[in-house]
Amino acid sequence: MRLTILGGGGFRVPLVYGALLADRGEGRVSEVVLHDVDAGRLDAVTRVLAEQADGVPDAPAVRATTELDEALRGADFVFSAIRVGGLRGRAEDERVALAEGVLGQETVGAGGIAYGLRTVPVAVDIARRVARLAPDAWVINFTNPAGLVTEAMSRYLGDRVIGICDSPVGLGRRVARALGADPREAFVDYVGLNHLGWVRGLRIAGRDELPRLLADVDRLGSFEEGRLFGPEWLRSLGAIPNEYLHYYYFNRETVRAYQEAGQTRGAFLRDQQSRFYTDALRPGGSALRAWEDTRAEREATYMAENRESAGAGEREEEDLSGGYEQVALALMRAIARDERTTLILDVRNRSTLAALDADAVIEVPCLVGADGAHPLATDPLPGHATGLVCAVKAVEREVLAAAESGSREAAVKAFALHPLVDSVNVARRLVDGYTAAHPELAYLK
User: Which pTM was predicted?
Assistant: First the structure.
């Protein structure tokens, strides 16, 4: 079975390959094709993968190419993890937004919109090529903003594109541990959009144990979301929000923390990964060791500004292990081997949430098998959550309209309608700033 990874020179590719090395079942991936527009990054990551595979019998073969069509032909699965504009683009997204006093995070608020406007045209081109060159392939999308990009691709690939994210998995794992339960035995009732969802229940042996957690202040304060949001707010919500909702519920404090930070997250990662790619190509050095050291620092500093503004302290050791590669592998196994399982994924809504139309991509538990991922029926969200989900989905639709039409007016509307952008005039200045900073947005007229 052949897996093609788009963004194959990306920093997190070794996580995926490491998961493949550990998979010893029937129908496992036998070949990995890496595609990237940057040959140097491909070379560096290929070296890391070669060290990972050293001594592993029957390790999946690795091939690298800068030719997209070549990478797609013959693929059984396509894993999309591209970053249009690179980390330089992410740093610019943050800079332009913070100059206007609004959030520049890569998936939330102004930064997420800018990233989406750059990414959607490229993702749509990829979807069209997959439909032409590998019509039987399944596309697993991790490219951010994951829900928006998955929805853009689904217009050409239907249900054969599925978005994944590790945030709900990590959240469910932490909630289960706080209850003293085995995360593998828990069903997480999670509903929303990508980076905009809530755990509303956690069922173990058919019993919802979340009320027990919400009633225990000490337990609520024992894990990351409890420290980030505070037990009192979680009890008010009657749910545990995805960590990204901290940008909404504590926006003023977070923006201030970002403005006061010596360096934005994007700028930090840009500089950090630049060092990694240099070190990985250094003769006589270990590319794998350079990657491992860089990854440890990256994970430890994740959402550092939010934790600082909330006084949440350092991340727990068990939360530094990532997880999206395990979701991707479980999804591929379920489809390729018909190993039916339940995973939280980004899929088309169908009739799951009555407030949204059938084609809106949402993030919910899905039953997965050889015929793909099917969202499970769920209770309606409370009014405050429904309002926020509908508002953000409306913004995503304006981003899609702007990307399709090249309309600057639609782009301004997308920024202006977002709950974290507080002025139409700010929205106009954001569009001016982003089009000046990003050549990829030259299509907006």
Answer: 0.94
